[in-house]
Amino acid sequence: MNVAEIETKPQKTTKRWKVELRQDWCKGCYLCLDVCPIEGIFARSEQIGERGFQVVTVDPENCTGCMLCELLCPDLAITIEELTERDEKV
Question: Which pLDDT score, from 0 to 100, does residue 14 have?
C-alpha cells in the first residue's frame, strides 16, 4: 500500500460550551428551565437571593450550545460561549 493511498479522516471534535449565569441579574422567571432541551443544566436555587428564588447552573458540561436560554432570558443574565482548546487547557 502506498502512503498516498492511505486516507486520513479528520478527527471529530466535540464542541464544548461555557454557561455563564449572572446571579445578580436573574429574577427567577425560570424561562431557561422551560426552554433548555437538556434536563439538568439549570435548576431552581434553594437559597433566596436578593430578587427571590433564582436559577443555578447544575450541569453546564452537558450544554449543547443551542443558546435558547441566552436568547430568551429577559434579564440577559445568561451567556453561552464556545470553549476553544486553549480555554480548556487553562
Answer: 79
User: Which CATH number applies to 24-89?
Assistant: 3.30.70.20
Q: Is the pTM of this model over 0.70?
A: yes
The 3-state DSSP composition of the chain as helix, strand, coil percent (nearest 5) reads 25, 30, 50
- Residue 74 contacts by C-beta under 8 Å, 6 or more apart in sequence? 27, 29, 31
Please state, in angstroms and rounded to a whole number, the distance separating the CA atoms of residues 57 and 38: 12
pLDDT digits (tens, 9 = 90+) for 24-80: 899 899 999 999 999 999 999 888 877 788 899 999 999 999 999 999 999 999 999
- Give 44-51 contacts, CB < 8 A, sequence gap 24+: 49/23, 50/24, 51/26, 51/27
DSSP bridge pairs for 43: 56
